[in-house]
Amino acid sequence: MNLTDLTHIIRDYFDGITPKSYSERIKRWLLSESQKDEKAAVMKQIWDGLAPEEVDVAGALRTFRENRHEYEWGLHRRSRFVKAFRWAAVLALPIIGAVAAWVYSGKYYERKQLVEFYVPEGKIDSLMLSDGTKVIVNSKTTILYPSVFNTHGGQRDVFLLGEAHFEVAKDTKRPFVVHSGKLNIQVLGTQFNVKAYSDEDLITTTLEEGSVKLYDDNYSETMKPNEQIVYSRNEGRMAKHVVRVRDFNYWMLGNMVFKDQTLRRILNDLGSRYEVDFMIDSSIDLDQKFTMNFTAKETIDDVLEVLVRLKKNLKYHKNGQTIKLFKSRKEDSQ
């Protein structure tokens, strides 16, 4: 198959006009290791053919990061997102990291490959970056980073969607910056935790050692050890608190600690940890707050029994990986 044929096939796929029976096959082929050079050449050819006003590179990558799970499972997007989402997918597919690096070559990466590291539900993993920075990555988390950081100055940029703990190698000449949406977290050498899932409004940064600067287009804050900043994506505001850091690092050991957290957030974390889906009756108050701890050895059934004891009249029905939460009939009749 020549490059012209490949170009037509890939264009049709990202335009959404490929027959459904072929789309899954094309997707598997794009994600495979075969014909990497040919696929990279086609992606560059498609990119070169775009009018400048057709695509915003930074916006496309941001769109992909914020909607990655929907791309993976093939959910439909509203029409106004189609173009940005199409090219976000082009930029962020693992096999064409070189193309993304090429796009960003003048700004960050100097033609180094942009690597995507993804941890699925129910898993915790780790990686070491080229500068010696150690990263522990929680479930349902994506990190994008250059295979090799620029050794001649500049900053060390990574992109996060999910939760990760960073132990950053000290380098006073090259600040380390974690980007998550509009929020940027800059350090020189330190240990800190960032929680920034796409389906949550809040981005939570907890500092263990060193110093951290958080900033967006309008505000900036500096953190000291044992401080936490909660940033609202919707409001663009930051709130700083003094916390017990270890409460926010237990997840690295497989434990879960919830201190004065809403039921909504607790269920979201439980779903990620145990790979379950919750169906929640509208009568249940998801903003009610709870404090509870679970060890790595406790099962989802153990957790559900604790919830039932803590929340009056709460009942559940478990069917495989789907859990329905509802109120008991006694309360409904009152």
Count of runs of 4 or more consecutive helical residues: 11
How many domains make up the 3D coordinates?
A: 4
Mean pLDDT: 75
- Assign an overall shape: globular
CATH class of the largest domain: Mainly Beta
End-to-end C-alpha gap: 70 Å
Give the strand tally.
Answer: 18
According to CATH, the fold-level topology of the largest domain is Jelly Rolls
Key attributes of the depicted protein:
4 domains, Jelly Rolls, alpha+beta, 334 residues, three-stranded mixed beta sheet
What would your notes on this structure say?
The chain contains eleven helices and 18 strands. It has 334 residues and is an alpha+beta fold. The longest helix has 13 residues. Helices cover 31% and strands 31% of the residues. It folds into four domains: 47 residues, no CATH class; 55 residues; 136 residues, Jelly Rolls (Sandwich); 73 residues, Phage tail protein beta-alpha-beta fold.
Short description:
The chain is α+β, with helices and mostly antiparallel strands. It is 31% helix and 31% strand.
